[in-house]
């Protein structure tokens, strides 16, 4: 089959890790008989430098003309909060999520077998395994609500952010979570703050309705503060964790760190029809950019997610994941994940080794 | 000196742990020559059972007639989210915070020397020590903002919660954080989501202004998602962490769990004038209520915070903390913190042992 992929190489180490992911894509194409063609799309700090805007006009259209989007990383201190909003890379991230309707952010946090030692938790906990999938709502809530800023008489300036959720928004992300749980260990933990927030009470009532539609999937409500604790205490208890945008931002990063291997973790942001967007969860790491030091594995595993969720090519996805696990099992490490005494390899060599395993 | 203390014994194990804390108060009184007198105040599920409301009329006035409030724990499955708001214990908690103006919630998360093994993190991390103080804004933000609920044409029901912050609110909590840092390791980490939220941008600008007023205190901005990661990766890096209400709810519970000893952690909620409120961070644990199994240490350490922050009795505060550490160093444990092979002691015996050390 033929697939068109938009490449947002982005800033910092973005171009390097995307470069290796493209090598892997080509290797997969060769082995399984697909053709991947690429379109470069400018977004992030590099776009600000080139055209004065982090989200150039026509970006969404260019992406929509493709079957999936692969993003390396955007951002860096060069384009900080002192810049106007349209020049800041995070503005572009939020805009592309909204314009492509990418309401479901899938963030697996799993301890890969060869990397168990990297887990910051005690050995006993790590040995019980961690394999959860955070499903974060990505186009609603306080990220996209109304902002206010006004002068008061007695309290100085005052600002406000509005968090809103509709039944429709909650139901579609909830359904994704239940469907995904069916393909996994059949358990959904829905995280909210229903003892305080109105949006959380609506969230919970919709989730309860869905739970009845999926009687084969175990369901629980977890308060967000308790979830933040449980992720440290016993992350192995979770399978699919579904939550709203802001809670998901915090908890998915916490869950990632609990695995100890940020450099290995991929993500997928998907909607109902437009192309899905795939990206490593790590940042642009400008300090090591251009030095062949970055770890390309998270981006390569993002390509595996692309195969699975956008192209429904499960064998191809599994082959990439197996290749990564194989290279790690052979002991190869980039600098970020190298144990003491191991000589790290570079970005390119890691990419080459994974291609060879394919 | 004479001090009046309001006792909110509350639900579940609340009455038991408050009972032991009162024994400790009396022992402190005897040793240091103070008189503590007590007024019982009804609040929480027990109040709902008694008078149909979790926050009976006149509660705030009764507390204001005292010099400090000690709270055991409130809540339990008996008074769940199916009850009307005024019967739910958490409604009472939010109301008393508001009515007493308790805008600063201080939550120390420290690894006590004898308890280092309880830390869920790897030994190497635990050995670097954890000793941070979360300063959570407690009377503003999305906890107290406007709620909306309405029917839409095409998206079903929709709800909204408003997060607002004024310069005045941010400045007073920020000032507390800097003052507290001066008494500690002189570092403030301010947590926000300034790349997304308007309230966070105001938060950050006020904090930057304060940081200039406290040049002797090191200052950093930390994004909330990054903070959730750093608390797992290297909690030893933090001294005072200041943040808004909702982020503080999540991060202070995460930080507590990182120490591994929820049963030991106290908290203080203070304002500018009204009595401060002191309570353990653990819940009401209805499953073990009335069985002499609860750990009274968190409540006893809350009394130490009361000495320090409400009464400015530093020697008394330190004496209580030293007594607790002494009993732990002698190897005494309640069931919740007993290592394998250790025979746990009961609530009362733990209280007695701590009094003896005093
Ligand atoms: C850069 C920022 C706006 C973004 C977010 O908060 O969503 C990032 O933290 C993420 O999780 O992708
Ligand atoms: C019970 C609940 C309303 C409360 C909060 O969220 O503030 C609790 O979690 C806490 O942290 O004291």
Automatic annotation (TrEMBL), chains A, B:
Q: Which PROSITE patterns has this protein been placed in?
A: IDH_IMDH
Binding-site residues for NAD(+), renumbered to this chain: 283-295
Pathway-wise, it operates in: Amino-acid biosynthesis; L-leucine biosynthesis; L-leucine from 3-methyl-2-oxobutanoate: step 3/4
Q: Which reaction does it catalyse?
A: (2R,3S)-3-isopropylmalate + NAD(+) = 4-methyl-2-oxopentanoate + CO2 + NADH
Cofactor(s), by name: Mg(2+); Mn(2+)
Q: Where is this site: Important for catalysis?
A: 143, 193
* Keyword flag NAD: yes
Enzyme Commission designation: 1.1.1.85
The free-text cofactor remark is: Binds 1 Mg(2+) or Mn(2+) ion per subunit.
The UniProt annotation places substrate binding at 97, 107, 136, 225
Indicate the principal place this protein occupies in or around the cell: cytoplasm
UniProt enzyme class: oxidoreductase
Q: Name one Pfam family in it.
A: Iso_dh
Q: Which InterPro entries does this UniProt record tie to the protein?
A: IsoCit/isopropylmalate_DH_CS, IsoPropMal-DH-like_dom, Isopropylmalate_DH
Keyword annotations for this protein, in alphabetical order, are: Amino-acid biosynthesis, Branched-chain amino acid biosynthesis, Cytoplasm, Leucine biosynthesis, Magnesium, Manganese, Metal-binding, NAD, Oxidoreductase
Its function, per the record, reads: Catalyzes the oxidation of 3-carboxy-2-hydroxy-4-methylpentanoate (3-isopropylmalate) to 3-carboxy-4-methyl-2-oxopentanoate. The product decarboxylates to 4-methyl-2 oxopentanoate.
This protein is called what?
3-isopropylmalate dehydrogenase
Give the gene that encodes this protein.
leuB
